[in-house]
């Protein structure tokens, strides 16, 4: 059976925590759609096209993940509508800490109300990556810190270029 899953997020920027979730998902889905949110509701550091380019470079250039199994897209719709478009019954969400759970639980419940054929699957990144957040990565690099343990080489390069 072919299984598609949607992994929605802002990826502003992508971190090793996101990448852990992606790698784990690839073990049980045929196609993973990494869906980068392009809504106006957040104040993004990178614009949508920059985030898509950064994600593609991280996944396909730095990590050499299988392009046939991963599709990177932008979206401005409900995630449940994206699931319909890509014939997916799975939304993947990453959990780092207990503090993430309440929001993610509510979001999963709302998505379930919008379409009861869609299941949300929560994946945890590995222990060493659970503390990583895009917010902290941006703050550390803005203060001249070393973020090599948190994201890929091409992402670091993009962050440095943005801050210069």
How would you characterize this protein structure?
It contains six helices and five strands. It has 164 residues and is an alpha/beta fold. The protein has a single domain (4-163), classed as HUPs (Rossmann fold, 3-Layer(aba) Sandwich), CATH 3.40.50. The protein has a five-stranded parallel beta sheet with strand order 3-2-1-4-5. Helix 2 (48-62) runs antiparallel to helix 6. The relative contact order is 0.21.
Coarse shape = globular
State the distance separating the first and last CA atoms: 48 Å
**What series of H and E elements makes up the topology?**
EHEHEHEHEHH
Strand proportion, as a percent range, falls in: 15-25%
Indicate the low-confidence ranges by residue numbers.
Answer: none
Q: Structural class of the secondary elements?
A: alpha/beta
Helix content: 40-55%
Named CATH architecture: 3-Layer(aba) Sandwich
Number of strand elements: 5
CATH top level label? Alpha Beta
Major β-sheet annotation: 5 strands, parallel
Query: Number of domains in the coordinates?
Result: 1
Strand order of the largest sheet: 3-2-1-4-5
The pLDDT mean sits at 94
CATH superfamily placement? HUPs
Number of helices: 6
Rg computed from alpha carbons, rounded to a whole number of angstroms: 15 Å
CATH fold name, please?
Rossmann fold
Give a brief rundown of this model.
With 164 residues, the chain is of the alpha/beta class.
Q: In terms of topology, how is this protein built?
A:
Elements: E1 4-9, H1 16-25, E2 31-37, H2 48-62, E3 70-75, H3 79-85, E4 90-95, H4 98-114, E5 119-124, H5 134-142, H6 153-163
Parallel strand pairs: 1-2, 1-4, 2-3, 4-5
